[in-house]
Amino acid sequence: MEFGRSVIDLMKARKSIRSYEGEKLGPEDKKKITDYIKKEHNTIFGSKLRFEFIDASDLNPDDLKNLGTYGMINGAKYFIGGTIDKNNKMKYCLVDFGYVFEKILLFLTDLDLGTCWLGGTFNKKGFSDKITLKEDEIIPGVSPVGIISKKRNLKSSIIRRLAGSKNRKPWSKLFFSGSFLDPLEESRSGTYKEALEMVRIAPSASKMQPWRIIKEKGKNVFHFFIDRSKFYQRRSVYLNLQYIDIGISLCHFDLAALELGLKGKWEARDGIQENKGYGISSNIEYIITWNGS
Ligand SMILES: Cc1cc2nc3c(=O)[nH]c(=O)nc-3n(C[C@H](O)[C@H](O)[C@H](O)COP(=O)(O)O)c2cc1C
User: Fold this and answer.
1) Which of 69, 160, 173, 272 could form a disulfide with 165 if both were Cys (CB 3.0 to 4.6 A apart)?
2) Residue of the nearest CA to atom 2 in ligand 1?
3) Phi-psi map region of 132: left, alpha, beta (phi>0 left; psi -120 to 50 alpha)
């Protein structure tokens, strides 16, 4: 494993940090970060991704403002930005982006640094300049990275409360057995209980938790879907964010399964979306299947 600690413990420990200490990061930490984000990361759909470390510690306040996070983030002097190639199939690039960026955020959690997924509240132009965005690239998300402020500032407490950071949907709303008609209780989930729990606690845009999983009866086969609420169906920016969310859920499931010694592989299966037996409604979109041995 690429982490010093149990990745399951890191998933449990990670939370969105919106307030940072003014302290600078040491050269060792900066090197660890750049080495990690620059390494070859496996992806599920083979997308081309690029990640950059942005050191804004010497920027004057105006320039720092241009790298705006719309007042959501306090005191951050460092950021990670990532790009996808817009010529490739966008949907799968966004899923891969979510998968790898979340892995990076878990790596930073392992270094005891704070992070916060930002998919909407950042200044695209400011970040494009900083990472010299190429013509065929877009930035789906960024994150501040830094030393977590010891003082909990009022604004970040309010945002956390509004985002409902602690609460997650119950198992019965997320996981199913055989079809969407039959909720999967923890007691019936077998050896994959903890991997599913890691999906349940994953971060998502506006904490929508759009992931839904059907486990095939009697098999370690898990089909992953997106459930789009009516509100989200009408706004294309959210469609993209929810592909990222699914990538995050795949990251948690995959890394947890690896740590638990559960073997399997990802397969994009034909015919799932059309299969009447799964009880799939029109707001549900099939993404991929985990075929566990
Ligand atoms: C794809 C994505 C985009 C997000 N965009 C923002 C954002 O623009 N601004 C923000 O303050 N939080 C953003 N968040 C953070 C979520 O609000 C947060 O992850 C969620 O409420 C769960 O809280 P937790 O991360 O503390 O577990 C985003 C999260 C994800 C996964």
Assistant:
1) 160
2) 205
3) left
